[in-house]
């Protein structure tokens, strides 16, 4: 269970939108890409996928761009990853007498438990939570020199 580059870029872009959520102003792809060091064309594809998934919305025009479709505290990381990567399909094996099939079933069960635990964490973490963690760490990193 690793975070793909695609998902990491998407979450970085969404964090950027979360930071400016209160302003209500859409952000342009080139602004987000420059701030988060994401290739423009790739970000464009990611945001199109997120728009189709109902996570962001686009606004046309000279002052257009992308906005979060809902409040950041209502968008979970699980939802974002599901939109980009799809949800894992659980494979079921029929009970067989073969000892290798039994071993595989035990391995599959423990993997399913791990997946459920990870999904639980991701379902309980929102964009607002990530933004809050980031901001609190920024404040901790500030050093004052006399």
Automatic annotation (TrEMBL):
One Pfam family from the record: Rrf2
Gene Ontology annotations for the cellular component aspect, listed alphabetically: cytosol
GO terms for MF: DNA binding; DNA-binding transcription factor activity
UniProt keyword terms in alphabetical order: DNA-binding
UniProt entry tagged with the keyword Transport: no
Gene3D superfamilies membership: Winged helix-like DNA-binding domain superfamily/Winged helix DNA-binding domain
Listed name of the protein: Rrf2 family transcriptional regulator
Organism: Cyanomargarita calcarea GSE-NOS-MK-12-04C
């Amino acid at each position: 269970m690793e975070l793909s580059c695609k998902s990491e870029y998407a979450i970085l872009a969404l964090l950027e939108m979360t930071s400016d959520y209160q302003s209500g102003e859409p952000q342009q792809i080139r602004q987000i890409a420059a701030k988060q060091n994401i290739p423009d064309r790739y970000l464009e594809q990611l945001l199109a996928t997120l728009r189709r998934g109902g996570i962001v919305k686009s606004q046309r025009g000279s002052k257009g761009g992308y906005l979060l479709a809902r409040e950041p505290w209502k968008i979970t990381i699980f939802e974002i990853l599901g939109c980009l990567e799809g949800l894992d399909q659980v494979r079921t094996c029929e009970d067989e007498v073969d000892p290798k099939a039994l071993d595989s079933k035990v391995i599959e069960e423990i993997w399913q438990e791990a997946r459920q635990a990870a999904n639980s964490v991701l379902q309980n973490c929102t964009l607002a939570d990530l933004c809050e963690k980031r901001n609190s760490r920024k404040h901790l990193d500030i050093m004052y020199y006399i």
